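A.,

Following up on our hallway conversation. Structure tokens first:
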């Protein structure tokens, strides 16, 4: 789908991290963990970036979580930083098959803005009567309220500092139960560490659903 989407709300969910909620265009449907391309025109040039959904479902609205680097983020980051209700952007997608698909247990390993799809997948799994675990590594916790609610609902949530090893938390999160699926969302260093931790815990990293942010 190639269309436009309008921002309905912007919420700060962590340091330099924002949840942008959009009115869903007619016919738009997506699963948690899929991503969309958002864009605009700046100084006569089209600029666009990919962002992963952080809403457990798509109804009248959908959400993405964006990390904005105020010094090195570029023109589009500056545009997003100034977004408010009523801001319009081009929208393409959704894209990607590394998303929640009704698995009976979802174990999500995330870093940075990957916490967005992590909480969305965990929420969707619990809503569907499945189990969920989140291993989240970052010095600054984003979506803290949603992570707290997940814990209260029975999800296993492991919060780690940015320089902390993943092995112990991943080993605790993995149960080896039938249908258990690992999801990984983050930048290249997080992805590499996550895959190594899954293998060290006796899991199959090749079977994981992975989105590498680069």
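Then the amino acids I'd put at each of the 214 positions:
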């Amino acid at each position: 789908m190639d269309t436009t989407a309008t921002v309905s709300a912007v919420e700060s969910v962590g340091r330099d991290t924002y949840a942008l909620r959009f009115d869903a265009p007619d016919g738009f449907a997506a699963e948690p963990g899929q991503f969309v391309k958002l864009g605009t025109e700046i100084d006569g040039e089209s600029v666009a970036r990919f962002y992963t959904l952080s809403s457990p479902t798509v109804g009248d609205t959908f959400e993405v979580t964006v990390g904005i680097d105020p010094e090195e983020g570029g023109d589009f980051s500056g545009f997003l930083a100034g977004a408010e209700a009523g801001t319009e952007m081009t929208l393409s997608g959704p894209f990607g098959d590394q998303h929640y698909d009704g698995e009976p247990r979802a174990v999500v390993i995330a870093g940075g803005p990957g916490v967005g799809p992590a909480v969305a997948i965990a929420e969707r799994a619990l809503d569907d009567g499945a189990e969920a675990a989140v291993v989240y590594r970052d010095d600054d916790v984003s979506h803290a309220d949603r992570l707290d609610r997940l814990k209260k609902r029975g999800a296993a949530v492991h919060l780690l500092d940015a320089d902390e090893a993943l092995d112990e938390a991943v080993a605790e999160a993995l149960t080896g139960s039938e249908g258990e699926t690992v999801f990984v969302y983050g930048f290249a260093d997080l992805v590499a560490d996550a895959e190594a931790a899954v293998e060290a815990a006796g899991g199959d990293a090749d079977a994981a659903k992975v989105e590498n942010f680069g």
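Helices lie at 74-81, 115-127, 144-152, 167-173, 188-200. Curious whether your intuition agrees with the design.

B.
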